[in-house]
Each structure stands twice: as C-alpha cells, then as structure tokens.
Amino acid sequence: MGKESAAGTRRRGGRGARERILVAAAALFYEEGIHATGIARLVETAEVSTRTFYQHFPTKAALVEEYLRGYEAGLARRVEERLTQEGLAPQDQLLTLFVMVAEAGSERPGGASTRGCPLHNAAVEAADQMPEVRELVQRNKEGVVQQLTDIAARGGAADPERLGRQLAVLLEGATAMSTSLDNPCPRQDALDAARILIDQALPDMQSRQRS
What we know:
Layout: E1 3-4, E2 10-11, H1 17-32, H2 39-46, H3 50-56, H4 60-83, H5 90-106, H6 118-126, H7 131-154, H8 160-181, H9 185-201
Antiparallel strand pairs: 1-2
C-alpha cells in the first residue's frame, strides 16, 4: 500500500522499484535531459523514496548507464528483427536501417518534439563528467559503423569500410539535424541519400524495384 511523504508525494513499496526508476529515467532523461533531471524529480516520478533510489543506484551516473544499456539492448533487438527478415538481401538490409530511422520520425505524437538519439544526446550531455557514459556511447557508435561495414562487405561493396562510415554519418546526421530543426524531414532525406549512395557503391542495386 502506498505511503505519503512529508511533502505529500505518494511513495510505493519496494516491489518493482528498480523497474519504476528505470521507466521514469527513460522518460525524463529523453524528454527533459539528463542534467535537468535531478534525483528529486526521479524519485517523485518513480514513486520511491530517496533511500530506495540509492539502494538500487549508488549514483545518478550509474542510473544513466543502466538506462542507456537498456535502450541499446532494445534497439539491437528491433534492428535484428528487421534485418533478419526472410529474403532480405544485404543491399536491402542497409536501406532498412534508414527506413527504421524515417519511421521513428513519423511516429511522433501530435505536437511532440523531435528528441533524436538517446545515446547521442547522452554523449553530448555527459562530456567529461561521465566518462563511463561517453565510452558506452562510443562503443555503440563504433558498433554501428562495423555493422554497416559488414553488411556492405556481404553486398559486394568495393570499399565496405568507406561505405560503412559514410552511411553511419548519414544515420547520425539525420537524427541530429531532425532534432535541431524539430522536424522529421531530415530522416526521409537521409533515406533518399542512402539509396543514391548504395546505388553507387553496389551497382546491382540499380535493377531493384523499391517502394
């Protein structure tokens, strides 16, 4: 049964507290920013006490890391599901990643702002204050480049490493520009540009019929 704090904020018992903190962090960090979200805001939203918070996360940085790992794992699962569709050739796999980015931009609720990639946002906010977070994001982005490079190699690209880097720049730039302009159009622009780039690097793609 819930309890009221001295300030009147409802507090729930410890069962499921860790998950509630992570859910609150995912929403608040993404919508309001990591630095702008203090411990008081987190515990109020998660309906836990400050003591309970620190029992699960010794520091705010530890919570940020856990939040990012959870986002990273969920994104990896979604990407893997799309890339392993039956009959999806390497060329189409490369484009699928851009389709996913474009779809994410078109799924905003009415009036919602474009926030961009949580990992990129965290890297910008963390700077030198959260080195573990910065390293986590760096490993993720390096992994994206490697994944694109591997797919490009399977598709027969003459220089898969170069194509992988170029496509990674397009992906990252699309979300960053979309956030800066608060407009989903750059995501579609990146998809269109990726089609041209892949056509040039993988000539056999030109004969494919694409929607």
